[in-house]
Design goal:
- The protein is built from 26 helices and 13 strands.
- It is globular and about 85 Å long.
- The longest helix has about 30 residues.
- By secondary structure, it is of the alpha/beta class.
- Strand 8, helix 13 and strand 9 form a beta-alpha-beta unit.
- Helix 1 packs antiparallel against helix 2 and helix 16 crosses helix 21.
- The strands form 2 sheets. It has an 8-stranded mixed beta sheet, sandwiched between helices. Strands 2-1-5-4-3 form a 5-stranded antiparallel beta sheet.
- The chain has 4 domains: about 70 residues, no CATH class; about 100 residues, PAS domain (Beta-Lactamase, 2-Layer Sandwich), CATH 3.30.450; about 80 residues, Rossmann fold; about 210 residues, Alpha/Beta hydrolase fold, catalytic domain (Rossmann fold, 3-Layer(aba) Sandwich), CATH 3.40.50.1820.
Length: about 575
């Protein structure tokens, strides 16, 4: 076997090992395939049969290694789908998974049930359930009232079907149903029963477990006033006594929580808290599409085309601002990413068409007639195809950090890592899944933050951006989540990026307004300016102090573009940049 082939096979197998040495492995592969002057690897002829055979074996090893993580991913998917703070526990009382809602509200999950549930009676009931199993029937256990938080809790436990968990032992789902009456719920309750604001506040305090004397003291009114208000409340709500009133308000609160967390959730809370909800929807073809809605439930619709592979979720401050500005941001995962099903046996053009049609069907399902379409970096070809294929759906077309245009000579403008991946996709696509899997392993390891920061080291703006751990987490966790079903979707999209969309953009009735950071070292500003020149009607804003991570570090500029009613001519902006 030639020396180069032997070295390549060794490097490919090395990519299936620990991610701690990832960058050296990547550089070695890059050198073997593209940089060695005497390399035997002919890009036109491809790889030898021996190399291809070993690549298949390496992929098999990676898939088996990935299988060890699959069970944890399955458990995480189960618990994340629950619209309440929830945990998965084993029959031995170990806490094996927690959803983001639980960790956000109650902190890091403890290792054992006894530390998770502190109330003795509740612990006893839970242990009895685990011991007897109750043939899988769900069991609810009353918790404690919490007047300081204006709510009371119950614990719901149910057995998880072993077929769902993949046979990792008997597991149980434990959810904390928190009857917390936030502003959105109380406003809905008040409007539904025609209560005054004062009467609604009294009803909430009653349901929170306070005595009438405590309510009078808190509201600084006479006890007789509280009694009179309760009498009026009972009349308006048609409840006979205080227990019935408590049951009514707690049931109302629970139903709202359930509606906003389920797939069918067309239930909207006008003026409520900022929304961040993930759902799945069955398309007419039978495929599933996975999507996230953020911001204002009844706001102006924005269709977000995510980056490759991350970019579905916004920073928390951006979600709050989207709510304040009345923006409803709908971000679907593309085929093969997240829980969205692949499009089988599709070429690149068919993939773009199908992704566009998926979005159209999703908008119909969500009751949305038209949107501002926003692409985040590598999402631009998909946004363009949506605007071309469904022009009646689009009010405005915005591209962040990248335009859907590509010239082969631009490959030399890319940083080393990105250049290597693009070259693999073009010349040696068989090796690409091995490398992408290794990148994913880095992002799903203790080296994740280091991996992201290393990739941003070339640009001052992006280096500053990833000092914010929230941005790093959105990239790392978003990538792992997007690729939980495998790397095939990402590999296919790496080829989409090398398609030139200039002609399609010229024909499209909608023209891009581009936002590009002046310190972008991944996709140079010159690429977007060239697209502006190539496609009449395209406009651009050069965002000072921003890099490729503009979507995260300068999201206010994105919102300004969404809500803006007029644009400056792009030549003025380009001359300012020059």
């Amino acid at each position: 076997m030639p020396t180069d082939t032997h070295d390549l096979i060794a490097a490919i197998y090395a990519a299936t090992l620990s991610p701690s040495d990832f960058f050296r492995i990547l550089d070695n592969l890059d050198s073997l395939l593209f940089l060695g002057e005497d390399s035997e690897f002919d890009r036109a002829a491809g790889l030898s049969d021996a190399a291809l055979s070993h690549i298949e074996m390496a992929r098999s090893i990676q898939e088996r290694i990935g299988g060890a993580r699959t069970q944890h991913q399955k458990l995480s998917a189960i618990v994340e789908a629950v619209p309440n703070p929830s945990y998965i526990i084993s029959r031995t009382e170990a806490v094996v998974a927690a959803n983001a809602m639980a960790t956000s509200k109650y902190g890091q999950a403890p290792a054992l049930l006894k530390d998770l549930v502190a109330v003795g009676d509740v612990q006893k009931h839970l242990r009895d359930y685990l011991r007897h199993d109750n043939a899988g029937a769900a069991h609810a256990i009353a918790g404690q009232s919490d007047p300081s938080r204006k709510g009371q809790t119950s614990v719901l436990i149910s057995r998880i079907d072993s077929e769902v968990t993949g046979g990792v032992g008997q597991m149980y789902l434990l959810s904390i149903i928190d009857f917390g009456f936030d502003e959105a719920v109380t406003e809905l309750f008040r409007a539904a029963y025609g209560l005054t604001h004062a009467e609604c506040q009294v009803a909430v305090l009653v349901a929170s477990g306070l005595r009438l004397s405590d309510i009078a003291a808190e509201r600084e009114v006479a006890l007789d006033t509280v009694r009179s208000q309760i009498k009026t409340i009972k009349n308006k709500t048609s409840t006979r006594d205080l227990p019935a009133l408590v049951r009514l308000l707690c049931g109302f609160s629970a139903s709202v929580a359930g509606q906003t967390g389920r797939q069918a959730g067309d239930f909207k809370i006008t003026g409520g808290a900022p929304m961040k909800i993930r759902r799945q929807f069955s398309l007419r073809s039978g495929r599933q599409i996975d999507f996230v809605e953020q911001g204002a439930a009844d706001g102006k619709p924005v269709l977000m085309f995510h980056n490759l592979p991350y970019g579905v979720e916004l920073p928390e401050a951006a979600i709050k601002q989207a709510h304040a500005e009345g923006l409803r941001i709908i971000a679907p995962f593309r085929p093969g990413m997240g829980a969205t099903d692949y499009v089988q046996h599709a070429d690149l053009n068919e993939l773009l068409d199908k992704a566009a049609d998926d979005c159209d069907e999703l908008l119909r399902h969500r009751g949305v007639s038209s949107v501002v379409a926003v692409s985040h970096a590598a999402g631009s070809p998909f946004a363009l195809r949506f605007a071309s294929r469904h022009p009646e759906r689009v009010n405005r077309l915005i591209g962040v950090a990248q335009a859907p245009g590509w010239r082969p000579e631009w490959i030399n403008d890319l940083p080393q890592r990105q250049r290597f991946v693009v070259r693999l996709a073009k010349h040696f696509p068989q090796v690409l899944p091995v490398v992408i899997w290794s990148m994913l392993a880095c992002l799903d390891s203790p080296y994740a933050s280091e991996f992201v920061r290393h990739g941003c080291r070339d640009g001052r703006a992006d280096s500053r951006a990833v000092e914010d751990q929230e941005i790093v987490d959105l990239i790392t966790k978003g990538s792992v989540d997007a690729l939980k079903r495998g790397v095939a979707g990402l590999c296919q999209e790496c080829q989409v990026l090398q398609c030139n969309g200039v002609e399609e953009a010229r024909r499209s009735p909608h023209k891009f307004h581009l936002l590009h950071g002046d310190d972008d070292r991944i996709i140079p500003v010159a690429h977007s300016l060239a697209f502006v020149d190539d496609v009449p009607g395209t406009t651009i804003d050069i965002v000072k102090g921003a890099g490729q991570l503009l979507f995260y570090s300068h999201w206010r500029h994105v919102f300004d573009a969404i809500t803006a009613s007029s644009r400056q001519p792009h030549m003025d902006l380009a001359s300012q940049y020059a």
